[in-house]
Amino acid sequence: MTTEQTETGSWQHGVVVRGARQNNLKDVALDLPRDAIVVFTGVSGSGKSSLAFGTLFAESQRRYLESVAPYARRLIDQAGVPDVDAVEGLPPAVALQQQRGGGGARSDVATMTTLSSLVRMLYSRAGWYPQGQPMLYAEDFSANTVQGACPECHGIGRVYEVTERSMVPDPSLTIRERAVASWPVAWAGQNQRDILVSLGYDVDTPWKDLPRQDRDWILYTEDRPTVGVYRGLSPNETRRAQKDGVPATYQGTFVGARRYVLDTFANAKSPSTKKRVSQYLTSEPCPACHGRKIKAEALSVTFEGLDIAEFSHLPLARLAEIARSVTAEDWRPSEAEHLPDHVLDAESRAASTAARVAEGGASHDAAPDVRRTPNLSMEKRAAAQRLAADLAARLQPMSDLGLGYLSLDRTTPTLSGGERQRLRLATQLSSQLFGVVYVLDEPSAGLHPRDLDALIRILHGLKERGNSVFVVEHSLAVIHEADWLVDIGPEAGERGGRVLYSGSPDGLAEVSESATRRYLFAEHAVARAPRERRTPQGWLTLEGVTRNNLRGLDVSFPAGCLTAVTGISGSGKSSLVSQALPVLVRDRLGQRTGESTELTGDPESDLLAADDAADDVRGEVTSVPDGVRRVVVIDQKPIGRTPRSNVATYTGLFDHVRRLYAATDEAQRRGYRAGRFSFNVVGGRCPTCEGEGSVMVELLFLPSVYAPCPDCQGTRYKDSTLEVLWRDRSVADVLAMSVDEAHAFFEGEDSVHHSLAVLRDVGLGYLRLGQPATELSGGEAQRVKLASELQRASRGDTLYVLDEPTAGLHPADSDRLLSHLQGLADAGNTVIMAELDMRVVAQADHVVDLGPGAGVDGGQVVAAGTPHDVAAHPDSATAPYLRGEVG
Ligand code: ADP
Ligand code: ADP
Ligand code: ZN
Ligand code: ZN
Questions:
Q1: Which residue, 301, 373, 508, 747, could crosslink 127 as a Cys pair with Cβ 3.0–4.6 Å?
Q2: 0.90 cut: is pTM over it?
Q3: % the chain with pLDDT above 70
Q4: Does the residue 406 lie in any domain?
Q5: Do 709 and 765 have their domain in common?
Q6: Are 268 and 288 in contact (CB under 8 A)?
Q7: Which of 474, 500, 524 is the last residue of a domain?
Q8: Which ranges carry the ABC transporter domain (predicted)?
Q9: How many Cα atoms sit within 13 Å of 294 on the Cβ side?
Q10: For residue 429, what are the domain limits?
Q11: Which atom of ligand 2 is the closest one to the Cα of 416?
C-alpha cells in the first residue's frame, strides 16, 4: 500500500457525478479519482453496473457520438442516454464487457485480438515459399477476403447442402402424405402440394416411384412458377377446372424444396423456424481445403514448417515459444534444414544476388520489397525476426492472463464471457492508449486464483500508463488491490442504489451497513457453523470421457452430495461439467437432450454451434445410483431472448394468476377465459403493440428506439381486459409489482404465494414480475432458473449441473446460492458444479481437481477427495489456495 491510497487529497483530477438515477440509482452524487484503480462492489442487483456501465460509460459514449456525424451514430450500438444531471472530468471510456455469443462464425481469436494481420504479414513477408511460387500479399492468407478464401467453400471451411435423403426421409410416402418433410408445416406446406397439383405433378404416388426428373424438379428447381390453385378440388377435378377456364381460388407461387430450406435458414426471424429447417441441412468439411478455409497457394507457404492453418491451430503458448525461438541470434528457418545441398546453394546464391540488387537499387526503391526476395535472404530473415518479436510481445499478456491454451482459430461463439473479456484486455495492452478510462466487468471471472496476480499486474500496468481503471468486481483479491472503493447497496433493486462508501478500501471497515465489509475484513466476518460431510449414496461413474481436451477420462461423483470441479482456466472443467456430463447421463437415463443448442440468429454460427453440439461427446456411464433419475442444468444463459418472456411466465406462476382473474365474477359474466389475460395470444392483449407494451420507432439517421405503446400506455392489454379486477388490481398492475409486493398481495393463494416465496428466497424479491427476461443479468437469470427448480416439490432424485455458478455474484450472494445448493443435496439430490471460488469449494463434500495444465496439458484428474484431501495434494495447482479456506 502506498500513502496516496489512504489520503483522499492526493487524488487530483476527479470525475464528478451528480444526480445519477439510471435504473435503481437513488440520485447518486459521487467524486472519483482519475488515474487510479476504482473498484465497484455491492450485492447483485445493487446498482454497480447501472453506475459503472449505465451511467459513466454510457455518458462517455454519448458525448463521443455527439461529436461524430449523425449517420455514423446509426452504425454504433448506442448504450442509451443515461439518466444523470451532470458528469464532469470524465476521460473517454473504453468498455470491456463480457458479452457472450455474437461475433459470428468468421470471428475468431485471431481477428478479435487483431493478431490476424500480424500473422498474415509474417506468412506473406517471412514465409517459406515453394520453388517457383510467386509471393503473396497478406490478404491472400485471409479466409475473410475474396483473394484469400478457398473458392470452394468461400472461407467457411465446411460446405452445406440439402440432399434428397435429408428432405425426404421416408420415400415410401406420397407427396400428399408429406414425403417432403422439409416443407413448411400446416397451411404453407399444403399450399406447395396444391400448386404441384395445378402444375400437373402426381401427389398420390409414393415418392420413390416418381420419375427422377419430377423428383429433381420438385426438390432442386430455382424457378418460381405462379399458377392458379383450386382449393378443395381433387387432381382430376383440378384438371377439368383448368380446361374449362374456371377461375382459380387464388394464385400460388412454387418454391423448390432446397431453395425453401436455404432461404428460410438464412432469413427466418423465428429461432424455432430456423431450427426446424436446420435439421434438413447437412454439412461436411470442405473437400477442397479440408476445413482450412483458405486457398491452396496460401496453404503452400510455411513458417517454421507449419502452414498458416496449422499455425493458427496451435495453442498461443506454443506460438509464443516458436516466435521467441525465431528471434534468437543464430536462427535459421527450419525448412532450410531439410533441403538438399544443391537447393540450399541455389537459394543462397539467389539470396546474395537479391541483396546486391537491393543495395544497388536503394536509390530507386528506399525499402526493398522483401516479398520479392528468395527464402534465405537477409531481408527476409530480418523481417521474420522483427515480426516474430512483435508476435511474442503480443502473446505474452495472453499467456499471463491464463489464456495460453486458446488457439488463434478458436471461434468467438465458443469462448466463455471471461475468456473473451481477458482477450480484449490483453489486446488493449498493445494499443498503447493513455488518458482513457477502462470500464471492466468482473475481469476475474473464470480465472483460477493462481492467475489472479497476473490480472492485477495488468490492471496496474494500465494505470501506470496514465489511464483510469474502473472495475466491477467480487473477487476479494482484486478488491484488496483497489486504490479506491465504491460500495453500493445496501441491498438490491429498490432497496439498493445508494453509495454506502467511497474512498480507500480500509475505510469500508467503518461502514456497518455494507455487505462487502463482512468479507473484506476478518474481524467483521460472520462465523460459519462447521458442516458435517455427507455420506455418498453410491457413485456416479463415467469412463472414457472424451471431449475437447478430455481424452478418455475416468471420473466418479458421489450421489446425494455436493461436488466441486476445480482446475486452472482451460483445464477442462466446462468440457466435463457442462458439455460431457449432462449428455452422457441423459443418454444413459434415456432422457432427451432437448434444446441444447441456442441459436444466435447468425446462420453460420448457428450451423457451427449445431455441429459443435452434435460433435462427439464420447464416454460411458458405468454406474448410476438409484438417486439419479433426471438431469437439470442451471446456467447463466438468458431465460429468453424476447421481452415477452419474464419472471412471471418463466416460473409458471402467471398461469395461476390468469386463472384467478378468469375465476372472478366479472370475467365469468363477460365470458373471459384464462387466455384472455395473456399478453402472448390474440384476445385480451393490446392489438397495437401485440402485447409487448412498447413499439419500435424508426428515426431517420438514428438508431431505432423503443417507446411505450401509445394505445395501452405500456400496460400490454386492451382496456376491456384491464376492467377485470382481482382484489382491486388489474392483471397489468400485477405485472408491475415487485416479487415482494406480489408476495403480500397474493397472501392466501397457495400456489402463487409459494412460487413468490421461493423467488424471494433466492434474493430476487426486488424484481418486477413483468420485467423482461432481456433485462436480467446472467446471475439473475440463473437464480430465476434455480427458483423454478426449487418450487417443484423436491423429489430428491435429480442431478443438478452448474458451471461456475458464483461468477458475477457478490460473496454474500454466493453464500445464499450455496445454502440452496446444500439444501438440494440434503434432500438427496446430487449437485456437481465447476467452481473457482475457494470459499465455496471448501464447503463441498467432494472435490475433483483437473489439470495439471491447460488445453492439451490438462484434461486429467490430478486430485480427488474431500476438500482437505485435495488441499493437501502436492501436485494440485488448486491446493495452495484451498488450504487457506479449509483451515
Ligand atoms: P448490479 O450490477 O449491482 O448487479 P444492476 O446495475 O445491473 O446491478 O441492476 C440494478 C437494478 O436495476 C436491478 O434492480 C436491476 O434489475 C435493474 N435493472 C438493470 N438493468 C435494467 C434495465 N435495462 N431496465 C430496467 N431495470 C434494470
Ligand atoms: P475450463 O472450463 O477448465 O476453463 P474448458 O473445458 O473450457 O476449460 O477448456 C478445456 C479445453 O478445451 C481448452 O483447450 C479449450 O480451448 C478447449 N475447448 C473448450 N470448449 C471448446 C469448444 N467449444 N470448441 C473447441 N475447443 C474447446
Ligand atoms: Zn474450402
Ligand atoms: Zn399496446
A1: 301
A2: no
A3: 87
A4: no
A5: yes
A6: no
A7: 524
A8: 533-877
A9: 23
A10: 3-101+414-524
A11: 7
CA atoms within 13 A on the CB side of 226: 2
Whether 745 and 809 share a structural domain: no
Whole-number Å distance, alpha carbon 569 to ligand 2 midpoint, is 9
pLDDT per residue over 126-157, tens digit each?
A: 999 998 889 899 999 998 889 999 998 888 88
pLDDT digits (tens, 9 = 90+) for 228-258: 999 889 999 999 999 999 999 999 899 999 9
What residues contact residue 445 under an 8 Å CB cut-off, 6+ apart? 98, 416, 417, 418, 421, 804, 807, 808
How many angstroms is it from 420 CA to the middle of ligand 3?
27
- Say how many Å lie between the CA of residue 694 and the centre of ligand 4: 6
- How high is the pLDDT of residue 559? 97
Tell me if 24 CB under 6 Å of ligand 1: yes
* Claim to verify: residue 428 and residue 495 sit in the same structural domain: yes
Residues 281 and 164 in one domain: yes
ipTM tops 0.90: yes
- For residue 459, the surrounding DSSP H or E stretch is helix 452-464
Ligand 2 pocket residues where CB is under 6 Å: 405-406, 414, 548-549, 567, 569-575, 612, 855
pLDDT tens-digit profile of 616-646? Answer: 789 999 999 999 999 988 887 777 766 778 8
What would the mean pLDDT of 405-428 be, rounded to a whole number?
A: 87
CA of 836 to the centre of ligand 2 (A): 16
| Closest ligand 1 atom, residue 488 Cα | 3
Residue 532 maps to a domain: no
Q: Which ligand is nearest to the CA of 445?
A: 2
Vertex 419: Cα angle to 415 and 424 (nearest 5): 110
Ligand 1 contacts CB of residue 373 (under 6 A):
no
Ligand nearest to the CA of 313: 2
- Please report, for the domain that includes residue 206, its CATH number: 1.10.8.280
Handedness of CA 32, 35, 39, 40 (dihedral sign): positive
Handedness of CA 390, 396, 398, 404 (dihedral sign): positive
Residue 411 CB less than 6 A away from ligand 1: no
Strands (DSSP E) contained in 247-375 are 250-253, 281-285, 302-303, 306-307
CB of 493 sitting under 6 A from ligand 1: yes
- The reply to whether ligand 1 has any atom less than 6 angstroms from the CB of 878 is no
Q: Are residues 45 and 95 in the same domain?
A: yes
Cα 365 to Cα 348: distance, rounded to the nearest angstrom: 23
**Residues flanking ion ligand 3, Cβ below 5 Å:** 150, 152-153, 286, 288-289
Task: Count Cα atoms within 13 angstroms, Cβ side, for 388.
Answer: 25
Q: Mark whether 178 and 136 lie in a shared domain.
A: no
Does 873 share its domain with 808?
Answer: yes
**Total domain count for the chain?**
5
Spatial CB neighbours of 644, under 8 Å, sequence gap ≥ 6: 679, 680, 691, 692, 772
Closest ligand 2 atom to 804 CA:
2
Centre of ligand 4 to C-alpha 735, Å, is 14
